[in-house]
Design goal:
The protein is built from 14 helices and 18 strands. By secondary structure, it is of the alpha/beta class.
């Protein structure tokens, strides 16, 4: 199912008040809603619920001579250049492109595939969030608290094991199978396992309570600019590789933060001036039967209506193939959120069936030669649908974000170690002294 793009967003203020700007700052934070400027790191605007966005002093992207995500240091909210081989990798597809009849299909591969120069050992693009977030946080003296359906947890646990930064990670029962590492877990990792009847949103609510305890700090989720700018490097890497902004960008979404990140990165590339002047059309996909953002976008609504878009959400989530793409409270309607990103890019949303997603996973491995995660299969299936419906043309420049893959190769090269829970919580309201 493909949705018409004839939706107009409400205009967002572009007027910025005259303020004295500290010249030693690498970036400021600007509210996507009211355009207020902040010179200190924070998660929220004082005036509204708009997402804060980084406004970097350097408008030209100058790549650093380092491996991995650190090459994009100019547009990451960090003072020190990160040194890690973990980063996005872009390559031109041949086999899948030929199968689909596309001339300019580029794969953003975010997983472990040494032959392609991809070294994300937790096999998910969530590592692109974890490295900048923990690098930014490491001198705070507090423990970082976050919720995850599994992939984010694994990425943050991996970086915690590497850096020693304390993390408290709340994961629902459905995410337990994803709690593994390519190394032995360390004492800095505190994994809180929720009951089997809990979902990702329950984990978010417990993490919010936990982050208010002494010595704890909320990671921030979609409001964390380090996470969004880290994920945005997928778009940056693709544009640098292609020497232009793509015409189309495909990604499966749960919260939609990755889609927002791709939009924000594209805005910076346009401001740079060397990569083109048009936004890529965002093609964002969800996995049936849980598709609240698809439903809202189909009906041209800025707001998600829970009774309409998410009837019996936990039952629907349980029926998903890519259950990790589930968030009952996504940043869809907030200023600077998914709705605005789709409006600004004249975007499209897809609702992908389990069978189509499974077939796409198998097709990608058969044609491209690497295993991928179910969410990436949802994205591949949406690309197939777009080709079949004529939404994309043969010669269009297309970026397909494969958000996770290469587990089979990690198992061969490193083996995997399970992360054992340090505490259990049957629901989001348990006394905190039971889990700290």
């Amino acid at each position: 199912m493909t949705i018409s793009k004839s939706i107009c967003c409400e205009s967002i203020s572009t007027h910025r008040p005259a303020i004295s700007i500290p010249q030693d700052r690498k970036y400021d934070l600007i509210c996507s809603g009211c355009n207020s400027a902040y010179f200190e790191d924070r998660l929220k605007c004082d005036s509204d619920n708009g997402l804060l966005r980084t406004d970097y002093r350097n408008k030209k992207l100058e790549l650093k001579n380092v491996l991995g995500i650190g090459k994009f240091h100019d547009w990451l909210p960090l003072d020190e250049i990160m040194t890690t081989d973990s980063g996005p990798v872009t390559y031109r597809s041949s086999e899948l492109a030929q199968y689909l009849g596309l001339s300019n299909l580029f794969i953003g591969f975010n997983g472990y595939w040494p032959e392609r120069g991809a070294y994300i050992k937790t096999c998910s693009f969530k590592e692109l969030e974890a490295f900048p977030t923990l690098s930014r946080f490491k001198n705070s003296g507090k423990s970082l608290v976050l919720a995850s359906a599994g992939n984010t947890a694994r990425a943050f646990a991996h970086v915690s094991a590497m850096t020693g930064v304390d993390v408290y990670i709340v994961v629902p029962g459905s995410g337990i199978s994803r709690m593994w590492l390519p190394e032995e877990p360390t004492d800095s990792i505190h994994f809180i396992q929720m009951g089997n009847n809990c979902d990702y949103t329950d984990s978010i609510h417990l993490a919010e309570r936990l982050s208010a305890a002494p010595g704890m700090q909320a990671e921030g989720g979609a409001r964390n600019v380090a996470r969004r700018d880290g994920m945005g490097t997928v778009m940056l890497d693709a544009a640098v590789f292609m020497k232009r902004i793509p015409d189309h960008y495909f990604q499966a979404i749960g919260s939609g933060t990755g889609g927002i990140a791709a939009w924000e990165a594209s805005l910076r590339l346009i401001e740079d001036g060397r990569f083109g002047s048009s936004l890529p059309e965002l093609h964002l996909s969800q996995n049936l039967p849980f598709v609240p953002m698809f439903n809202a976008w189909k009906d041209k609504r800025r707001d998600i209506v829970k009774d309409i878009d998410m009837p019996e959400p936990k039952r629907l989530i349980h029926e998903m193939y890519a259950d990790i793409l589930s968030n009952r409270e996504p940043p869809y309607s907030v200023p600077g959120g998914v709705y605005d990103a789709l409006c600004a890019s004249d975007g499209t949303m897809y609702a992908i069936s389990n069978s189509d997603a499974k077939n796409a996973v198998n097709l990608f491995e058969e044609l491209e030669g690497i295993d991928i995660f179910p969410p990436a299969g949802v994205a591949v299936a949406s690309l197939i649908e777009a080709v079949d419906s004529g939404k994309v043309k043969k010669d269009d420049h297309i970026v397909l974000n494969i958000t996770g893959g290469g587990v089979k190769r990690v198992e061969q090269d490193y083996g995997i170690c399970k992360i054992k829970p340090t505490a259990h919580a049957q629901n989001a309201n348990v006394p905190l002294d039971e889990i700290i």
